[in-house]
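Model: Ready when you are.
Researcher: Fold this.
Model:
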Amino acid sequence: MTDFLIKSTIALCVLLGAYYLLLEKEKFHQFNRFFLLGSLVISFVLPFVTIEIIKEVADVANTNVVVPGKITANIVAEKTSIYVILGWFLYGIVTTVLFFRFVNNLYKLIKKTKSGVVIKHQKATLVLLKEQTLPYTFLNTIFINEEEFQNNKIETELFTHELIHVNQKHSLDVLLIEIIKTVFWFHPIFIFYKKAIQLNHEFLADEKVVKSHNNVSFYQNLLLEKANHNPIYYLASNLNYSVTKKRLIMMTTTTSASRGFFKKTILLPLLTGLVYFLCTKTVAQEAKIKSTSNKETDKKASALDAYYDKTTFKIKDDKGIVVAEKKYKDLSPTEKKVVPNLFEGVKFPATKEEIDSKLEKGGPESVEIDVYDPKNQKVKKEEGAIYKTSDLTENPSYPGGIELFYKFIGQNYKMPVTPADVKLKGRVYITFIVEKDGALSDFKLLRDIGYGTGDEAIRVLKLCPNWLPGKVNGEPVATMYSLPITIQAHE
């Protein structure tokens, strides 16, 4: 609910602000009418729209931590705060009072249609009232004073004005905004929307009167003459609604086609930006080409172990002198990075027969490893740059190995409380930076499975001790790291 209110409020304020800045003073009132009504609809719909932007997690160091679910049968759901209950109780009381006020006004207007003489006039119904009143309109009914009507004292301009309200069904707009105000009475923005909608109704009616009778000065004087009368019903359209300087000026205002087109065009990037800001959500997706599953990685490692089973790797120091001999499985991650390509000399793409033949033959008797050779060195970037693992000569790692990291996550991760019928299962994707000193920073949640699973993962990572940083040519650098955490709740 909070997310809905925040997003809808942002949309309502931005669109109403655009109306006041770009449209209100221009003479395309029909467009403005639908813009205001459309703004209400858009603002209520946008919070429910989600556009996912896929971000592939690839070419960064990654591991996959599985967090098993914990038994939650004895967990008691958190009790609702007394303040929340009181808040909803207050909301219910005020909404009920306003609803009955709304219904009561509707009843009075409907009852009023039966209290006087009824006459059909063009597409409207005239109700002649004994009381002294200015003409006002509700739906297709125009209420006027009986004596003034019979003595022809009601100016033609007044009939034209009210008939526009009838023909263009302005009362429906007012009913819509009043229903919204009744439900969202605590939100002041709808007061401004109602004022803007009703004033635009008057612009529409005034424009028709001026075109039909072609006597601007007389009509303006007529409005000022009637200005001391107050409307009786807030649901009705009244001749005297907001006889302001804006209405008088609008009658003589002209809007060029080019200026109108320009201002309408500006609304397109505004709406696009609003949708992007409120509706887009970045989610992670494993890159199908660049990333490999754990099974594929294990299979590849087993194949290399078998291929190099009888190979001796001679390790050179920075002076080119052999200082150690190792088997493949004993090589450090940095040394494994400079192991010669297994399929060097084999035509690409290799056939299955060629791969099997190569693996069956096995590796050479000995291979020299020189991590200090210039061809094996990486190019250092500018100061402060963030590296990917493909740029490193040594990947960042957790002290003691990745298995201890799994254990740390599993021991500290607390499964969130969920409804009894919800079984959490899925992946949480997080990226962070392993700084030069091994500290973790800049945590970004790319995707979670709800119920605070992502926030909990970030909380645990913030508790994590410093890592061994990634290195380029022996120098520590800041490295981007991605972490998929698999949540598997017990059945």
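Researcher: Now this one.
Model:
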Amino acid sequence: MISKRTVLIWILILLVATTGILIGRLTVTSVSAEGEGYEELKTFTEVMSMVKKHYVEEVKSKDLVYGAIKGMLNSLDPHSTFMTPEGYKEMQVDTKGEFGGIGIQIGVKDGMLTVIAPIEDTPAYKAGIKAGDKIIKINTESTKDMTLHDAVSKMRGAPKTPVTITILREGWKETKDFTIIRDIIKIKSVKSKVLENNIGYVKINQFQEQTASDLSAALKKLGDEKINALVLDLRNNPGGLLNSAIDVSGRFLPKGKLVVYTKTKAGERTEFFTEENSYFTQPIIVLVNQGSASASEIVAGALKDWNRAVILGIQTFGKGSVQTVIPLTDGSGLRLTTAKYYTPKGKSIQSTGITPDIVVKLEAKNGAKEHPVVREKDLERHLKNDQTDTKPEETETAPIEVDEKDDIQLQRAIDILKTWNVFKELPKAS
């Protein structure tokens, strides 16, 4: 019998992607190897014994066990996975926002490994990989039945080394090979500038360890330039660290405001509050789209529920489940979905996402191509929303690329803030 012990684990909310981890802490007690369901392990040991004894080639016990664990977790939701020791180390590197790879977010749709979005200014982005592309092979190895974690591991590697991915794109009759040279994927999480009429613009690409402090620096710089309103762009942001999401929310909300809470199957609730004393007080419009996930949805949901910002764009990704990562004794790790998270008003966004206050859809201009939109509800084995049924919708598409001059979501936000400022400056009626 395995003795009971207390272990420290990490709560993670992970987009099915190369990045996108939200981290908090939880203490649990390991379970006994005896009890309900464990009698079925007898069948497993029988099969393992037969394979070891009679299989045509020599196989390692660890390979069989790892394969069985992967298969078991693969029968659950798309975010529960097993990580080898190497994979567990990679996951820890992810939180730093820097790793060797090609720079794409991936998921599984219709049984096929699918690109959710390429990360801007990365090798994959520059090579022409598009959202909605189906990855058929990685270095000639078929991706059929390949786990997301294994796919990510195969595409990652040392900088300056090549990886070839075979792509099938909608409208293509044949696949095409893309040989991409890996590089250090170091995502600059915060970009800022001043738009017309003294309107500030901040884009957060990912929630990393330094994002909140980088945001503070950007807001200070914009403040020095006398901005009177802000556009916060969270489009195509796959998520990131939970602590970063809380801290970013604290730059726009007063101290002590509930940002998000998580709830387990047993009903255990954990709440997360803002801690900053000073915060940005000017009007805010938050831009979101189908690629805004996880931490992005936490921030957008908090600002919406507290009536702190107007949310503009289209429905977000809908990633609202919590993964607990448990380190195992051999250096491997288990990522298991253990809870769901909720906005301050108690809304679950799992498989539904955040609904914008103002819906504005981007349109393809001059015959530009579009790609099918992939959201949480499109991923196989996704968890259902416990508050509402997710109704099937017609296939939605979005432009592959949009020039800034055709970015009607941003332009609409600017127009609204201009009007906002006009009304604010009107003299009061006497």
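Researcher: Key takeaway?
Model: The chain has nine helices and 23 strands.
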